[in-house]
C-alpha cells in the first residue's frame, strides 16, 4: 500500500515542544479523529495504549511506529508526528523518539498490517530522509518529504 493511501497532509504534524509519550499518543489520536469523525478519539488512543502495553513501538534511531487495531475501520489510516524535542519512548535502543508514524488498521487484517509496518519501517530506515524530516518545521513540507 502506498504511503499516500494511508497518510494525508491533515494527519501530518510538526508538534509543539514538551510532549511526553502519552501526550504524543493523544495528539496522534486527536489528529486521526478530526479526519475520521466516525472514530472517537478515546478509541484511537486506547488502541495505541493497548499496543504499547505489549511492548514499546520505538524501533530505534529516534523513530516509533505506534499502531492500533480497530473494529470500526475498513482501511488503514496513518498519522505522522514530528516532535520538536525527542521524547522518552522506551525504544529498543534506549534513545528518545522524535519521529512517530502511527498506523490504525482493521482488527482482522493482520497480513496487510504487518506488510504496511514493514514498508514504513523500510522507508524510515533511510537516514537522509529522516535527517531531512527532522529539519522541517512545516506540516506540508514534512508530508511531501515522506510521500515523494
Automatic annotation (TrEMBL):
Task: Report the InterPro entries cross-referenced here.
Answer: PTrfase/Anion_transptr, PTS_EIIA_type-2_dom, PTS_Nitro_regul, PTS_SugarTrans_NitroReg
List, alphabetically, the CDD domains matched: PTS_IIA_fru
Where on the tree of life does the source sit, at the highest rank? Bacteria
PTS EIIA type-2 domain spans which residues?
5-148
Q: Which NCBIfam families match?
A: nitro_reg_IIA
Fetch the PANTHER family from UniProt: NITROGEN REGULATORY PROTEIN (PTHR47738:SF1), PTS SYSTEM FRUCTOSE-LIKE EIIA COMPONENT-RELATED (PTHR47738)
Could you tell me what this protein is called?
PTS IIA-like nitrogen regulatory protein PtsN
Q: Whose protein is this, by species?
A: Ferrimonas gelatinilytica
The organism's taxonomy opens as:
Bacteria, Pseudomonadati, Pseudomonadota, Gammaproteobacteria, Alteromonadales
Gene from which this protein is expressed: ptsN
Amino acid at each position: 500500500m502506498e504511503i499516500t493511501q494511508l497518510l494525508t497532509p491533515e494527519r501530518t504534524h510538526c508538534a509543539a515542544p514538551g510532549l511526553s509519550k502519552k501526550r504524543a499518543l493523544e495528539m496522534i489520536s486527536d489528529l486521526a479523529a478530526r479526519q475520521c469523525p466516525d472514530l472517537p478519539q478515546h478509541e484511537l488512543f486506547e488502541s495505541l495504549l493497548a499496543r504499547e502495553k505489549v511492548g514499546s513501538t520505538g524501533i530505534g534511531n529516534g523513530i516509533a511506529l505506534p499502531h492500533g487495531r480497530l473494529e470500526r475501520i475498513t482501511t488503514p489510516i496513518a498519522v505522522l508526528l514530528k516532535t520538536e524535542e525527542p521524547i522518552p519512548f522506551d525504544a529498543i535502543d534506549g534513545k528518545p523518539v522524535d519521529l512517530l508514524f502511527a498506523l490504525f488498521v482493521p482488527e482482522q487484517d493482520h497480513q496487510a498490517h504487518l506488510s504496511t509496518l514493514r514498508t514504513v519501517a523500510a522507508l524510515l530506515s533511510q537516514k537522509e530522509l529522516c535527517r531531512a524530516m527532522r529539519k522541517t518545521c512545516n506540516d506540508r513540507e514534512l508530508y511531501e518529504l515522506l510521500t515523494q
